[in-house]
Write a structure and sequence with these properties.
Layout lengths: L1 E6 L2 E7 L5 H12 L10 E3 L3 E4 L12 H5 L6 H4 L1 E2 L13 E4 L10 H7 L7 E2 L3 E4 L12 E8 L1 H8 L15 E6 L21 H4 L16 H23 L13 E5 L7 H8 L5 E9 L5 E9 L2 H11 L3 E2 L2 E2 L1 E4 L4 H15 L6 E3 L12
Antiparallel strand pairs: 1-2, 1-10, 2-9, 3-4, 4-8, 5-7, 6-8, 6-9, 11-13, 11-16, 12-13, 12-17, 14-15
Family: Belongs to the cyclophilin-type PPIase family. PPIL4 subfamily.
Function: PPIases accelerate the folding of proteins. It catalyzes the cis-trans isomerization of proline imidic peptide bonds in oligopeptides.
Keywords: Isomerase, Nucleus, RNA-binding, Rotamase
């Protein structure tokens, strides 16, 4: 017995424990059948713990059972909610376990867990909200929350949700929503009065009011692409430099290679320094270009460093040459900050070579002619 959830980041299939938790599964299946979950967002995403959804109000306080929906005029709360359905064999042992969140009072769970999963004071009851675990062996949830299913397909989709950026209340800044629910197998007869819509209904205005950053909206930066790339490289270089400092490869993290040097990798072994010089000289004056070779064998190590006179010429070469085919190889171009250790070794060998002391690498160094126009 299964349900397919189509979310804004991919599809997930839930297999249900219809024998162990029949009332809970009936409630969930019929809610899916009447499209109650359509447009519900994941309003509580706690990384490597769990993700919660099923509340049309996106507050963690809404949602009701299928029986409450069928009898809107009833003031009997027992129709709006269902009692928890705990089976001794169903545990929160594995990542991808699906359980109902509690709506109602204390079930004996500790305050922290109640707060996380939506429990308030009173006897434990369930409505429409459910959560999916993203960790193994959450045994402190056993006996308190109704396990009724497990993820059969789509764990990679859950990992995307798990990695979402959230605010202090654990709601993702950019909405992640259930788009559609498809009941793949339903063993239960429909309750009296259940009306299945012919097509998915449009979200109500109240649901539209819950939108923050729509799941279909692109978050556009106000910065130009070049500035974004510069900031990205700067942050990446700082992080790698700190790592090198911690392992002892740099005396202090602020040391960094110059920004006018490109690192070119995945070269064809047949590619020579003069080949790279000819190709890259279209972007500006090249001060040096070295294909790194093994000292003993003379074989190319398939990477090189290219030093430009100006940083802006170096940046232009980076943007236009990355992933370009050179000698039937799609080269990778990056700034030397991203390979600080290799750049440091290159500089040491370069200086050593000028003094006659290079031992491991042979650097092909050539004088560079003026850049050629119209390559």
């Amino acid at each position: 017995m299964s349900v397919l959830l189509e979310t804004s980041v991919g599809d997930v299939v839930i297999d249900l424990y219809t024998k162990e938790a029949p009332t809970t599964c009936l409630n969930f299946l019929k809610l899916c059948k009447v499209k109650y979950y359509n447009f519900c967002c994941f309003h509580n995403v706690q990384r490597d713990f769990m993700m919660q959804t099923g509340d049309p109000t996106a507050t963690g306080l809404g949602g009701e059972s299928i029986f409450g929906i069928l009898d809107r005029t009833s003031t009997n709360s027992s129709k709006k909610y269902l009692p928890t359905e705990i089976h001794p064999k169903l545990k929160h042992r594995e990542k991808g376990t699906v359980s109902m969140a509690i709506a109602g009072a204390s079930t004996g769970a500790n305050q922290e867990v109640n707060s996380v999963l939506g429990s308030t004071a009173g006897s434990g009851v369930i409505g429409s909200q459910f959560f999916i675990t993203m960790a193994d062996n959450l045994d402190y949830l056993d006996g308190r929350y109704t396990v009724f299913g497990k993820i059969a397909e789509g764990m990679e989709v859950l990992e995307k949700i798990n990695g979402a950026y959230t605010d202090s209340d654990f709601r993702p800044f950019k909405d992640i929503r259930i788009k559609h629910t498809i009941v793949l197998d339903d063993p239960f007869p429909d309750p009296e009065g259940l009306e299945v819509p012919d097509e998915s209904p449009l979200p109500t205005q109240a649901m539209l009011d819950t939108v923050r950053i729509g799941d279909d909206e692109e978050i556009e930066s106000l910065l130009p692409p070049e500035e974004e790339e510069r900031i990205r490289r700067q942050k990446e270089a700082q992080a790698r430099a700190l790592t090198l400092e911690m392992v002892g490869d740099l005396p202090f993290a602020e040391i960094k290679p110059p920004e006018n040097v490109l690192f070119v990798a995945q070269l064809n072994p047949a590619t020579r320094s003069e080949d790279l010089e000819l190709i890259f000289s279209r972007f500006g004056l090249i001060l040096s270009c070295e294909v790194i070779r093994d000292k003993k064998t003379g074989d190319s190590l398939c990477y090189a460093f290219i030093e430009f006179e100006k940083e802006e010429e170096c940046s232009e070469a980076y943007f236009k040459m990355n992933n370009v085919l050179v000698d039937d190889r799609r080269i990778h171009v990056d700034f030397s900050q991203s390979v600080s250790k290799l750049h440091k070794d290159w500089m040491v060998k370069k200086v050593g070579a000028k003094r006659g002391g290079a031992e491991d690498l042979n650097l092909e160094q050539r004088s560079r002619p003026p850049p050629r126009k119209g390559f």
